[in-house]
Amino acid sequence: MTTIALIQNQFGVLNALDVTSLTGMQTQIYNKFFEVLVEESGYDLERATNLANYRLQYPEGKPDVVIAAPFPTEGNPAGAFAELLEISRAFPDAFLIIWSGRSENAIRETIGRDYPTAVYYTGSVLDCAEDFADLIFEHSRKKK
Predict the structure, then answer these.
(1) In the chain, pLDDT over 70 holds for what percent of residues?
(2) Global pTM?
(3) 8 contacts 49 by C-beta, under 8 angstroms
(4) pLDDT confidence band for 144 (50 / 70 / 90)
(5) Among residues 33, 44, 42, which one has the least CA distance to residue 11?
(6) Are 125 and 11 in contact (CB under 8 A)?
(7) 3-143, superfamily in CATH?
(8) Does residue 37 or residue 116 have the better pLDDT?
């Protein structure tokens, strides 16, 4: 079974522990995300807001796929690159999906050059579940 580590704090709705506290649209986003990746695709999903929290929550965690959203929506991306370096070192064998709302070519080129097993994804929280499922499926087919 494939284990996905969702390490991000950009989309708080995906880290919600109590679904009853979510509003209408938030509930739809949350339900769709988990329906596609967990129920339909059969993946185990481990969630944390950052790498340190992930290690605390899942001390034995060895995900097959890491979805990380470290980039701030604007401003200096240097901290995000440092965080990605930590994540890639923590999980050297994991397929890395880097999720960002930023479309700067310099970021995309740096990801492609410095993180060769990564995919840089810029889609929305509304579309991400199906897109992630497709990316993970394609990656698993290439590994065979």
Answers:
(1) 99
(2) 0.93
(3) yes
(4) low
(5) 33
(6) yes
(7) Response regulator (3.40.50.2300)
(8) 37
Per residue in 79-138, pLDDT (tens digit) is 999 999 999 999 999 999 999 999 899 999 999 899 887 899 999 999 999 999 999 999
Written in H, E and C, the secondary structure of the chain is CCEEEEEECCCHHHHCCCHHHCCHHHHHHHHHHHHHHHHHCCCEEEEECCHHHHHHHCCCCCCCEEEEECCCCCCCCHHHHHHHHHHHHHCCCCEEEEECCCCCHHHHHHHHHHCCCEEEECCCCCCHHHHHHHHHHHHHHHHC
Closest CA to 99 of 31, 2, 1, 9: 9
Question: Rounded distance, CA 51 to CA 84, Å?
Answer: 9
| Tokens of residue 52, six digits | 């340190």
Q: What is the dihedral of CA 50, 51, 55, 60, to 10 degrees?
A: 120
- What are 114's two structure tokens? 């410095």
Computed from CA positions of residues 81, 86, 87, 88, in that sequence, does the dihedral angle turn out positive or negative?
A: positive
Residue keyed to tokens 């993970």: 136
